[in-house]
Design brief:
single chain, 494 residues, alpha/beta, Spore Coat Polysaccharide Biosynthesis Protein SpsA, Chain A, five-stranded mixed beta sheet, three-stranded mixed beta sheet, 15 strands, elongated, transmembrane helix, membrane, Nucleotide-diphossugar_trans
Length: 494
């Protein structure tokens, strides 16, 4: 009996087996439910976090839209002020009641003290008053900027410069607008700039290339416009690239040779507009030298002023026109050298123009920094002459769109990290000035051009006798000169 009980106790009964099965099933079920519940918890948490992120993004978009709307309103106000300033730029006008000359307003300068305006001639007052009334009716033309390349991210470029055909400045306020198709022309942004160098007879190309690779704002492309074949450009460029490519991130250098320069001084501007895709172009004479921060300075200045300026390190202001009725041999500025036509030579102060250290000027010289799209308005306008005066013609055409010339002089306190200056003529051109292209050009066409542009409506800042009557007499004087005197055979040989 004892053995049977021991054998029966050692074997599992059917009840124990069922209990073990139920326990195992409960454990497996618990694990399965726990896994399912944990998965559902993670999904719910992920959905909640996604909703929170979407809400935050929507709030940020709303804030950006509000900021863009505020920027748009502020920029429209600023641009309206610029347009009003351009409309108010007028020659001296006369008050009929008091018979006193009203002096044209002086534009503020950072470094110079403005001098007192000279009274206008009595015989020209009536005509100047009528000229003023005509100019008051002329409003600046509208400018159409390219749309920004990425409207969803480039809000700065969008809010500053994008316009539609019906308005002068229109800002995109929607941050959800998709980027433009890749084949469409667009604005790459305010940090995009290309440089166009000019080569004639001077051998300054290597020095200018070294200045460009050291700029704090690197150009996307460097274009070299060679007028005729006095300098071997290709070997200079190849040697420079092979020497500097190991130490510098070299921008592409493109050379265009013009064996017969039919476009004259305009050729480099055609090159800048047709070959560049940057927002800004910086066009240099072959005697320009610049500090390492020059490109960054002009790009920042133009962007801050809504691209409504032509910036340069050199500027000129017309002081007076040659009036044959007064004196056919009187120079524009008495301290300058005289020539046979009664004008002044280009060596001293550039044709009698008043050099200004800083501020608005009548036109820029030596280098021209502006938004590339503005060139199409100038290059599409009628050309007065290809012989000379591309600087004055550029200022004349863009003035009709509310764009004026501005000289960025050397700052009194330079930045300790870099020099943001540029120089022309006094720098690289000082030692080889006889190789300048203007040296073999006659002075009379440039003097005629000044009078022609004033007669066409060019508004100068500080010129007492710049009116239609004197300008017409000046034009007739130069056009009626002895053709033998003005013939190309009498030009100076360069």
């Amino acid at each position: 009996m004892t053995k049977k009980k021991q054998n029966g106790a050692g074997q599992p009964s059917w009840a124990k087996f069922i209990l073990l099965s139920i326990a195992a099933a409960l454990i497996l079920g618990y694990l399965f439910l726990h896994q399912r519940l944990w998965t559902m918890h993670l999904r719910t948490r992920l959905l909640v976090e996604t909703d929170l992120q979407q809400q935050q993004q929507q709030q940020q978009q709303q804030q950006q839209q509000q900021q863009q709307q505020q920027q748009q309103q502020q920029q429209q106000q600023d641009h309206s002020q610029l347009l009003k300033q351009s409309q108010n730029r007028q020659p001296p006008r006369v008050s009929a009641a008091t018979d006193k000359t009203v002096v044209p307003r002086k534009y503020q300068e950072n470094d110079d003290n403005s001098s007192e305006q000279k009274p206008c001639d009595i015989e020209n007052r009536q005509q100047m008053a009528s000229d003023t009334m005509i100019k008051q009716e002329k409003l600046p033309k509208q400018i159409e900027w390219l749309p920004p390349c990425n409207t969803a991210t480039d809000t700065g470029a969008s809010s500053t410069n994008s316009t539609s055909p019906s308005t002068t400045i229109t800002t995109s306020t929607s941050t959800s607008t998709p980027p433009l198709p890749f084949w469409m022309e667009c604005d790459p942004g305010p940090k995009s700039i290309d440089v166009i160098l000019t080569v004639y007879k001077r051998s300054n190309l290597r020095l200018q290339l070294e200045m460009l690779v050291n700029q704090t704002l690197q150009p996307q492309n460097i274009f070299v416009y060679q007028s005729e074949h006095y300098v071997k450009v290709e070997p200079i460029v190849q040697a420079f690239q092979s020497e500097y490519k190991a130490d510098y991130k070299m921008p592409p250098i493109h050379v265009l040779q013009a064996p017969v320069d039919v476009a004259g001084y305009h050729g480099r501007f055609y090159m800048a507009y047709t070959m560049s895709r940057a927002r800004y172009v910086s066009i240099w004479d072959d005697d320009v030298s610049a500090g390492t921060g020059w490109l960054e300075r002009v790009a920042t200045f133009l962007n801050e002023h809504h691209d409504m300026y032509i910036a340069s390190s050199g500027g000129r202001m017309v002081q007076s026109l040659v009036d044959p009725n007064k004196s056919s041999s009187a120079p524009i500025v008495s301290k300058n050298k005289k020539d046979r036509s009664g004008g002044s030579s280009q060596e001293s102060n550039t044709f009698g123009m008043l050099a200004k250290r800083h501020g608005e000027v009548d036109f820029c010289v030596h280098n021209y920094n502006l938004r590339r799209e503005l060139l199409r308005y100038w290059l599409g306008a009628p050309v007065q002459t290809y012989y000379t005066g591309e600087d004055m013609q550029l200022a004349f055409v863009l003035q009709q769109y509310g764009v004026h010339a501005y000289k960025l002089g050397r700052k009194l306190q330079r930045n300790e990290h870099y020099d943001d200056w540029a120089d022309g003529a006094k720098g690289l051109g000082a030692n080889n000035r006889n190789k300048a292209s203007y040296k073999k050009k006659r002075n009379e066409p440039r003097q005629w051009l000044i009078c022609k542009l004033v007669a066409e409506g060019f508004q100068t800042i500080d010129c007492p006798n710049c009116n239609a009557t004197v300008a017409k007499r000046c034009m007739d004087y130069y056009e009626n000169l002895d053709h033998h005197v003005l013939s190309s055979s009498n030009e100076k040989k360069g």
